[in-house]
Amino acid sequence: MNRLFIHQALFRILSAPVLGVMVYLLILLINNNFSELENIFSGAEVYVCIGLAYISLEAMRFTLAASETWLSKQTIRRRIIIQVVATLTISLFLITVSIWAYYYYVVGFAISHNELYVFLAIYGAIGVLYNVLFFSNFYLNQENTLLLLQEKKLREKLESDFISFKNDINPDLLYESLENLILTMQHNVDKAEEQIDYLAGIYRYGLINRHKELISLDEELQAAGHLIKLLNYKHHNQLNLLVTVSNTKDIQLIPGSLLVTIDSIVRNTLLSKESPLVIRLHLEEGDEYLVLQHTLNDKLLLHQESLQAYNRLKRSYSFFSENPFVQVKAGKENYIKFPIVQIADEVDS
Asked: How many domains is the chain partitioned into structurally?
């Protein structure tokens, strides 16, 4: 609202003098007799017109500013009608009172009806023009704001897609898995082969589904199972994923949702034989959210790369669901809620 031209200081300072002089010249042209009008109007008359222009413009601006909150809730057609009527009524009322007071107290006699009608007609036309300029500027700002928001969302999506593509590699997971693999190969070749299979399954999943926007929970759980088994080699079977969700094929997620989230949880949680990490996956009542729950036991120094990947995932869900991606810490429990993405059924034409 404050960005509209009517609130700009330069417009408020310069518009009244310009309009006042134009009104004064227009009155001279309407009467078409400059010699007689010079006897009626003194040098102060032009300043009176400027003062009336200032009263008219400020009255309309104040009316718009005071009623903006209420007017913004109205339909477009109703707003136009109400705004034009309100601004003209208040502006012309103040013009009438000001002109009458000037003639009565300064000039010394009452203004004639014809002269009053001329003033009201001119300032009424100014009021209509003022509203036309207001709505032109108002809807231009709205259109520009909408375009900027669309451009911002498109840029965020492109950045998210690009970063997500790079994040598919997850170099920390790769290097740590290779290090564990080197240690395992020295003692147990069979387990080393299992680790290779799990690691390959995770990266194969990422490459195959890299260009997909959504994927079923069933496929995501398969990849998450590989990740849990792979991480258990490093953490000595202290991780467990409990799933209590039926119809996993009907639930859609962004590819990598569980992988990124579980990786972030594991990297930022203290683990030991006495405090294993149990992650529970279930549907919230109402089936609007898929909930990942675990007990809080945060590390003192958090893994920033995993947190950044997790935050990118949260932003990505805003493109697919009106429900927000939610994380709630209640007591000793952490609840990560994925909004259920609804896919509209295609209607046969």
From this structure: 2
In this structure, the answer to whether residues 246 and 267 fall within a common structural domain is: yes
With contact defined as beta carbons under 8 Å apart, do 52 and 96 qualify? no
Q: Is the pLDDT of residue 142 over 70?
A: yes
From its phi and psi, is residue 32 left (phi > 0), alpha (psi between -120 and 50) or beta?
left
CATH number at residue 271: 3.30.565.10
pTM, 2 dp: 0.54
* Domain encompassing residue 73: 5-161
Are residues 327 and 195 part of one domain?
yes
CB atoms within 10 A of CB 150: 10
Q: How confident is the model at residue 346 (pLDDT cuts 50, 70, 90)?
A: very low
In the DSSP assignment, the letter for residue 103 is I
Instruction: Say if CB 15 and CB 57 are below 8 A apart.
Output: yes
Tell the burial category of 151 from Cβ atoms under 10 Å away from its Cβ (0-12, 13-18, 19+).
exposed
Q: CA-based diameter of the chain, in Å?
A: 115
What pLDDT score was predicted for residue 39?
46
Residue in the block written with tokens 């003194």: 42
